[in-house]
Design brief:
alpha+beta; Neuraminidase; 4 domains; 5-stranded antiparallel beta sheet; 25% helix
Length: 647
């Protein structure tokens, strides 16, 4: 429903209350004539002409209540809220009990201007009438709670200092809907482009990080932009996948941009320095409804987005779809009532921690219009917790939305049309208070290459939670440059396996279970060894209790990778080797290393790897990979590995 239809419905509703129980609103035929003409002009969209006729009406009959309310409606619609307030007040002063709903609309204007005390008093007055409709009563009670919340929030403001992202990002045009890679090195956003012909379209622009506080000059994403609109995008953590919104069903540009109706979600892949042609995500993500404002989880397995009945109209909610085991998107599910309300929810953002959801809503208690909230994932319920208002002055009496929180959780970004900006909407950042920050994360970044030829490789990455055995991510390094980037949430232990046919797999671990503060990123290139005689792999995720040789249960993930490798390469024979540190006697360490190697050997045989392809050996502490004078070095030396003996 557009603004004019809303205004007309407001007016007609008010008039029904004014005329209830009365034969005529005025005794003057001339005043009635002007009023009827004004009402006609207003319904035709001629608000200025209607206002002139209403002035004549009021001049003839200063007690013509309906004329004051229609004038107030027009003033508000034309952008003069303070004048609207005066006309509502004058109308209500004529007969304070004639139109109880008038107090509701007066209070709404107060609220729209941040005049919370006046709005509180006026909503309370509206609720004192018995004969108001259930809808007005329910809405007045809700907005009264907003007034009380806002007054308290203003008395307890958060530390808040906005910083414009600068001339390299912002222009006289509008910039909005920012999205970042998890290493915080690339920013993508939407810019509204206008021309002398006043044609307006939306395009994508990108910018690389210059230093900790500045961005390089932004550039057009020419491979993604078209003569039509592109906007509201979400980058994957590694910057290799883009999900975005396109609203035109323009088949003439190519079948890949055809839509299902209204707005749809599309995706594109980045290979090297080039983007693929965007493709409609299809059913069940897209429908004949309005799908927009996507947010892709850091592991690429979940997609959050907004769905509404019609483009920019009707009720909108936040939905989520997950990838199934075959890589297809499941039927989207609407998030729970802690998130979605009977009013609009917009601008969803799932932080790379995958535990903190930021979104905008009109349906939760707040400052009166669209506010920004957060919700945290609850492990005990496996669902989203209560919505928390970000508070004042992040939220104000105006509409706030489109928030983006940096991967480290310290900075938040959003668009605002503040007067000190470069033009219309500009992108700003601000320090996010600690109580509103997401969980801490870090990342692993590097390249995969052939250990012998140095040729870059596109290898498969499996990131697994060691404690639960759950696969958190399955992705590939870039085929053109071998690059990869993986998000790691603090407080968890991870197993990493990197594999490629024809190569020995790479095993690693990231033990972050006790890391709850800032953790520096892991910058690590990964050389893969071609399968060959005497090539070895350290199995970093084989676990034993101190001084014991029995395999712990969480070793089975790594052993499963080894079994898969042996099944995929049936001609490969290996020797399992056990190693220890120098703590203890020579005999003790040798026997322990033999028994540990034997445990792995036995496990493989139990899982149908032929014994003739296997052997085992214990080497005690004779082949250290680090010095034994530190705990870290000794931990590296206590290891299990295998060596290729035949191919």
């Amino acid at each position: 429903m557009n603004v004019r239809k809303i205004s007309i419905s407001i007016f007609l509703w008010l008039i029904s209350f004014i005329l209830w129980g009365q034969n005529l609103p005025t005794k003057s035929k001339r005043a009635e004539k002007y009023f009827i003409e004004a009402r006609k002009e207003y319904t035709l969209g001629n608000s200025v002409q209607a206002e002139l006729l209403l002035k004549k009406t009021i001049k003839i009959d200063k007690n013509f209540l309906a004329a004051y309310f229609l004038t107030a409606t027009i003033k508000e619609e034309l952008g003069y809220p303070l004048a609207a307030i005066e006309y509502y007040k004058k109308g209500l002063a004529i007969n304070p009990d004639a139109a109880p709903t008038g107090y509701y609309y007066l209070a709404k204007v107060y609220l729209s201007q941040g005049m919370y005390t006046e709005a509180q008093v006026t909503f309370t007055k509206c609720l004192s009438f018995i004969n108001i409709s259930p809808r007005v009563r329910k809405e007045s009670e809700f907005q009264l709670k907003n007034c009380l919340f806002a007054l308290k929030a203003i008395q307890n403001p958060l530390a808040f200092k906005l910083k414009n992202l600068g001339v390299n990002i912002n222009t006289k045009e509008s910039e909005y809907f920012p999205t970042l890679t998890v290493d915080n090195q690339f920013l993508l956003f939407t810019r509204r482009i206008s021309s002398q012909k006043k044609y307006v379209q939306e395009d994508f622009f990108g910018a690389d990080k210059l230093n900790d506080s500045l961005w390089q000059e932004s550039f057009s994403m020419v491979e993604l932009n078209t003569p039509f609109n592109e906007g509201a995008a979400s980058l994957s953590a590694d910057g290799k996948t883009l999900v975005f919104t396109a609203c035109e069903n323009y088949g003439e540009y190519g079948d890949e941009r055809k839509g299902y109706g209204s707005c749809d979600l599309f995706f594109a892949r980045k290979i090297g320095n080039h983007w693929s042609k965007p493709i409609n995500m299809g059913a069940p993500i897209n429908t004949s409804n309005w799908e927009s404002q996507p947010s892709l989880s850091a592991n690429g397995k979940s997609l959050y987005f907004i769905r509404a009945k019609k483009k920019l109209q009707g009720h909108s909610d936040i939905y989520r779809s997950d990838l199934d085991e075959n890589g297809f998107w499941k039927t989207p599910v609407k998030l729970n009532s802690n998130i979605n309300t009977s009013k609009d929810e917009l601008s969803v953002f799932i932080h790379p921690d995958n535990q903190t959801l930021y979104f905008s809503s009109k349906g939760h208690i707040g400052m009166g219009e669209t506010d920004i909230y957060l919700s945290r994932w609850k492990e005990e319920t496996q669902d989203w917790g209560e919505a928390i208002n970000l508070g004042y002055p992040i939220n104000t009496y105006k509409d706030e939305n489109s928030i983006l929180v940096s991967p480290d959780g310290n900075l938040a970004y959003f668009a605002s049309d503040r007067p000190e900006g470069f033009g219309e909407l500009d992108l700003y950042s601000f320090q996010l208070p600690k109580q509103l920050q997401p969980e801490k994360i870090t990342y692993l970044k590097g390249k995969v290459f052939d250990a012998q030829t140095q040729e870059v490789l596109s290898a498969t990455f499996d990131l697994i939670d060691i404690e639960t055995g759950k696969q958190l991510l399955n992705s590939d390094s870039d085929s053109s440059n071998g690059s990869f980037l993986l998000t790691l949430q603090l407080g968890k232990n991870y197993l990493l396996n990197v594999s490629l046919p024809g190569y020995l797999f790479y095993s690693d671990q990231f033990l972050l279970q006790n890391a709850f503060s800032n953790q520096k990123p892991f910058l690590k290139n990964i050389p893969l060894q071609p399968i060959g005689i005497n090539q070895k792999v350290i199995l970093k995720n084989i676990f034993f209790k101190t001084g014991q040789s029995e395999l712990q249960n969480n070793s089975e993930i790594e052993l499963g990778k080894l079994i898969s490798f042996l099944n995929d390469n049936p001609k490969v024979h290996i020797e399992i080797q056990g190693h220890t540190d120098t703590i203890g006697t020579d005999e003790y360490n040798l026997n322990l290393s033999i028994e540990r190697a034997k445990s792995v050997y036995n496990f493989l045989i139990e899982h149908e790897i032929p014994a003739e392809r296997l052997s085992y050996k214990g080497l005690g502490y004779l082949q250290p990979v680090e010095e034994n004078d530190t705990e870290e070095g000794r931990a590296q030396n206590r290891r299990t590995e295998f060596v290729v003996t035949q191919i």
